[in-house]
């Protein structure tokens, strides 16, 4: 692939992987630690997950504006350095054995993380051609799948071998590697500062509000973009449920004595499925339209998630999870390759800054609901899977009714623009 000839992309790609890997190893180890220490209070593990998603609600109006107004390379790099420093504080807090302090530091570290991905995604858009967006999305999804296969499993292994403190040290090393990779990138200033150089004195509450409003107006006026962003919101419900339900399923139903082991197997099954699905999606991206790669896999995913609630057989559960991952892969490739094509580079940060908070809001809401209802009001985990499947099937109906029409409208407008541009060039010549 020619995309690998772009050294900046390769460095950014592995920087994002190292950053995400580091976060997940420590997070999963901490979840296992809480389930061991507070076995009869599963809400503690849910609250830990909440510390990773809840910060979005406090910084969502800033992340996109920062990515569009300031040097995107410096924003992404400094996010890594700050998280490395907070990880050092987190390591020290483990010796104090203060759960509230640990939760607070996890909250702060997650808040800083929210600024990383809009800046990194905007940099990637600035260094690639439009023809490479789908390839980049497929490659990102493939490596994310590999990271899922090994990342969560390594979290469990790290907790069982080197302990929670060792996992936190791994986090620190990952953030440092990510920062160094980003620093070594040689990215043109027009990709780093597409809106020109900004000064801190120009960064006021009124200017932040204006940029934030411009981002949401841009999304709302573009019906196709608004539909895709809505999808991120709904998928946040699934992310929230999948971040904690598999552990609960293993701990309280399928394998109480070996739940760490089989929770890792869940991650391996889902990650392997995502890897297979991403490979398939990357191959199909040039043969099928993005909306076709989204609608049908969403429908199959909804049916299979419903089946997760019906089965009490561990092998069938893991096999079903693998197929769900295979369905999710093409969806992510389609969205990842489609959005950069329809979003102006000057607004990519603000648009990316909206997708994450919407996902995290839905994820936080899901985790909050699970913390309240399980096991106090709902003692059967399968009902939570049924609810998740219902949400996914509603998304399928929405996309089946809207995406084909909006896709045709986009193709028509792009064709008209191309024809008009061609006529202008002929006239000039």
UniProtKB/TrEMBL annotation:
Q: Does the keyword Glycoprotein apply?
A: no
Q: Which domain of life is it from?
A: Bacteria
Q: What is its main location?
A: membrane
Localization, per the record, is: Cell membrane
- Domain named Major facilitator superfamily (MFS) profile: which ranges? 8-407
UniProt entry tagged with the keyword Membrane:
yes
**What name does the UniProt record give this protein?**
MFS transporter
Q: Which GO terms describe its molecular function?
A: transmembrane transporter activity
Please name the source species: Metabacillus indicus
**PANTHER family to which the protein is assigned, alphabetical:** MACROLIDE-EFFLUX PROTEIN
**Could you tell me which Pfam families the record lists for this protein?**
MFS_1
Keywords from the named record: Cell membrane, Membrane, Transmembrane, Transmembrane helix, Transport
Which CDD domains is this protein grouped with?
Answer: MFS_MefA_like
């Amino acid at each position: 692939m020619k995309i690998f000839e772009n050294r900046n992309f390769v460095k950014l790609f592995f920087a994002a992987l190292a950053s995400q890997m580091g976060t997940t190893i420590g997070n999963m180890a901490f979840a296992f630690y809480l389930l061991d220490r507070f076995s009869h209070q599963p809400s503690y593990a849910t609250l830990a997950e909440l510390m990773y998603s809840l910060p979005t609600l406090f910084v969502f109006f800033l992340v996109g504006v920062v990515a569009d107004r300031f040097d995107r390379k410096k924003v992404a790099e400094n996010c890594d350095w700050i998280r490395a420093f907070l990880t050092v504080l987190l390591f020290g807090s483990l010796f104090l054995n203060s759960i509230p302090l640990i939760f607070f530091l996890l909250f702060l570290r997650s808040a800083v993380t929210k600024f990383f991905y809009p800046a990194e995604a905007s940099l990637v858009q600035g260094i690639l051609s439009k023809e490479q967006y789908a390839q980049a999305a497929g490659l990102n999804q493939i490596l994310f799948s590999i990271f899922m296969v090994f990342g969560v499993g390594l979290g469990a292994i790290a907790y069982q071998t080197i302990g929670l403190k060792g996992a936190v040290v791994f986090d620190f090393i990952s953030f440092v590697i990510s920062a160094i990779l980003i620093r070594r990138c040689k990215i043109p200033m027009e990709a780093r500062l597409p809106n020109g150089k900004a000064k801190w004195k120009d960064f006021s509450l009124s200017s932040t509000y204006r940029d934030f409003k411009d981002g949401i107006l841009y999304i709302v006026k573009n019906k196709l973009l608004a539909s895709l962003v809505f999808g991120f919101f709904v998928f946040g419900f699934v992310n929230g449920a999948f971040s904690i339900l598999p552990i609960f399923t293993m701990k309280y139903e399928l394998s109480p004595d070996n739940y760490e082991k089989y929770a890792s197997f869940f991650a391996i099954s889902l990650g392997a499925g995502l890897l297979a699905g991403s490979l398939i999606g990357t191959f199909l991206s040039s043969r099928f339209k993005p909306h076709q790669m989204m609608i049908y896999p969403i429908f199959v995913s909804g049916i299979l998630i419903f089946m997760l609630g019906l089965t009490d057989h561990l092998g069938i559960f893991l096999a079903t999870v693998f197929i769900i991952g295979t369905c999710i892969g093409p969806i992510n490739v389609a969205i990842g390759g489609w959005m950069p094509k329809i979003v102006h580079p000057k607004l990519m940060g603000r648009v990316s800054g909206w997708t994450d908070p919407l996902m995290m809001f839905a994820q936080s809401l899901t985790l909050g609901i699970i913390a309240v209802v399980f096991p106090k009001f709902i003692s059967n985990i399968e009902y939570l899977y049924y609810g998740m499947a219902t949400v996914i099937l509603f998304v399928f109906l929405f996309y089946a009714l809207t995406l084909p029409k909006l896709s045709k409208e986009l193709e028509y407008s792009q064709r008209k623009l191309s024809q008009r541009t061609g006529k202008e060039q002929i006239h000039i010549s």
